[in-house]
Amino acid sequence: VNEFPVKLTTGAKSAPTMVRYSSKDDPRILIGDGNRLINLNEQGIAVNGWKEPSMASELAAPIRYLHYSGKDYLMAQTKSGKVHFFDRQGKERARAIQIDTHQTAIYFQEGRDLNSCRFIGHDSLGNLYDQPISGSVKVENILPLGGDVGMVNIHLGEHDLATISDDHFITLNASRDVGLDYLLPEPIASDIQMLNRRKEWIGLNAKESDHYYILDLDGQMLDKMPVKGKGKGMVLDINGNGSLELIISDGKRELKAYTLAD
């Protein structure tokens, strides 16, 4: 396609990001190449006027586009924990911040403005880290111990964070009080899937079997759970009859479909 393939110096370790600043603007493709940030047009040609900023290290996640108070921000989260904020030309738009790299997982949560955006993460000692863009990090020891604790930022009503440890699924609200405490019939893998936001359905894989569960955030397990499945599932209305189905692999060589009843 046009000028593709584009030659990279050290290679890309995270997925590219496509940004369109407005409906009238042409798309821009942003990708990290080592500690460089490259900006291409849809033809694979370097964008004129781009300053190609140097980052602290290679990207830990794809570039995230933010827009607040009429200003564009290209957020670059690096593996060294440094987070940069660039404008359309690659110049620093806001002061970079440093994230503690001892965290097992780090999630970004958008706010009403740039300063209220925050990074949320945890470590194997049960510490929950909450770091706003503007302000100091808050550390609370409220999670279970262990390196296999799962946590995901669901940010849905009174349920802000969801965690799993062994057979225990817990949600926390914005004040870090428990919203839901649910005991499952077997140990669950740490990978939590926000399966359907409208239905408030969570997908969970059993740790030691090929069972897949769907739990709603009211604390109700869907009928006929568990089903046979492994990995990430997808919920959709396959035949357009208003009934939702779960599509999931069995972890081997079959793709299964189940009709869901909530």
Q: How much of the sequence is in beta strands?
A: over 45%
Q: What is the succession of H and E elements?
A: EEEEEEEEEEEEEEEEEEEEEE
By helix and strand content, what is the structural category?
Answer: mainly beta
Give the strand tally: 22
Q: Return residue spans where pLDDT drops below 50 for at least 5 consecutive residues.
A: none
Number of helices: 0
Mean pLDDT: 91
* CA-based gyration radius: 21 Å
Biggest β-sheet: strands ordered side by side in the sheet: 4-5-6-7
Helix proportion range: under 10%
Q: What is the makeup of the main sheet?
A: 4 strands, antiparallel
Shape assignment? globular
Distance linking N and C termini: 46 Å
Describe the protein's architecture and organization.
The chain has 262 residues and is mainly β. It is built from no helices and 22 strands. It has a four-stranded antiparallel β-sheet with strand order 4-5-6-7, with no helix packed on it. The radius of gyration is 21 Å and the shape is globular.
Give the helix/strand layout.
Layout: E1 17-19, E2 28-33, E3 36-40, E4 64-68, E5 71-77, E6 82-86, E7 92-98, E8 105-109, E9 118-122, E10 127-132, E11 138-141, E12 150-156, E13 159-165, E14 168-172, E15 178-183, E16 188-196, E17 201-206, E18 211-216, E19 227-228, E20 234-236, E21 245-249, E22 255-259
Antiparallel strand pairs: 1-2, 2-3, 4-5, 5-6, 6-7, 8-9, 9-10, 10-11, 12-13, 13-14, 14-15, 16-17, 17-18, 18-19, 20-21, 21-22
